[in-house]
Design goal:
The chain is built from 3 helices and no strands. The protein has helices at residues 5-40, 51-87, 104-109.
Length: 124
Amino acid sequence: MPLTDKERRHLQRRLREERAQIVRILDRYQDEQSSTERERAGDVSTFPTHPADEGTDTYDADVEASLAARATEELHEIDAALERLYRDPERFGVCERTGEPIPFARLDLIPWARTCDQERRPGR
């Protein structure tokens, strides 16, 4: 069954909320990167106090970079979903592989979903 106007409005709100949250995450990451750049420029007030801390800091930076990359990918998916919703609202929520409606419960959890989750399960 196609999405109702009320469901589409709900999903639009969810997409905007998710987008705002990701933008905050990426802004925080950018702020941390700016802080790291200041350290490289000679601000010693933030250097680790023990050599072992340097390894931990490197690991933390790698994890944060990975999370930022994932958030960036998710942001692109959300922007693409909003574009699909604005461009052709009647087709929003239709599985790109099967042409079947994506269940609203799935879209409520992952409003940028492009496909039904059934095709990912073995035997379906």
